[in-house]
Specification:
Helix content is 76%, strand content 0%. The termini are far apart.
């Protein structure tokens, strides 16, 4: 049997992952079989097992592919002159443009991560990557004077991740959910958190609460001493 060219192998691998996404979202991780995925992909079981030994391997392949896609998108996000507009565009892509089964798949993988150690390790590693990547984007934007948030970059990344998780979940489970109405409101909420800075405007950052408290204490002490 002739060896397939690398580009042919990659195309087949992508087709298998595409089929696995559809099957997992449609039937769930446990009801879905490797035979279902073979039929969806139009390949033989022997061909599938060349690339993936188990359903856990397929989940790992799907998640890694999504991670690589998001990494490229966040690299572009960090270069955007208007961070908030770029974030809004990214949110619209994932909540509006992507097919519904992708959101259902995300819930399925997250649920399986709570029961299956292998899937859990894959899921949590990418979850950590996403939060750290957003943290780096926000830290860089603050360093460059594009935003002036009251909270640190790590906290901002956590909050944005929670907002995104809730939005994806609602889109997956509620057919009547009006994302077009809600998304602009969420963008305004994120805008308040990031506090974008107009080009050339001075950045005014309020002192941390602890520092302000210490300043008041010192002032009080001086007043008492003078008395």
């Amino acid at each position: 049997m002739p060896k397939l060219k690398p580009e042919t192998q990659q195309a087949r691998r992508e087709r298998i992952l595409d089929a696995a996404e559809v099957c997992f979202a449609r039937a769930g991780f446990h009801r879905c079989t490797m035979q279902d995925i073979c039929r969806e992909a139009g390949i033989s079981p022997g061909a599938l097992y060349v690339y993936f030994a188990s359903k856990e391997d397929l989940i790992a392949g799907i998640v890694e592919r999504d991670r690589a896609k998001l990494a490229a998108e966040l690299t572009e996000l960090s270069k955007a002159p208007d961070l908030l507009a770029a974030l809004a565009r990214l949110g619209e892509h994932y909540t509006v443009e992507e097919p519904h089964y992708k959101r259902v798949l995300g819930i399925e993988i997250g649920g399986e991560a709570t029961r299956n150690a292998a899937v859990g390790e894959t899921f949590h590693s990418v979850d950590v990557f996403c939060r750290q990547a957003f943290e780096q984007v926000f830290a860089r934007a603050e360093q460059d004077g594009k935003i002036a948030p009251k909270d640190d970059a790590r906290t901002l990344a956590e909050v944005v991740s929670v907002i995104g998780d809730g939005l994806f979940w609602r889109r997956a489970v509620d057919p009547a959910f009006d994302v077009h109405k809600v998304l602009p409101v969420l963008v305004r909420v994120v805008s308040m958190l990031l506090n974008p800075v107009e080009p050339g405007a001075p950045i005014s950052v309020a002192p941390p609460a602890a520092s302000a408290s210490r300043s008041k204490s010192k002032s009080k002490s001086k007043t008492e001493a003078a008395s």
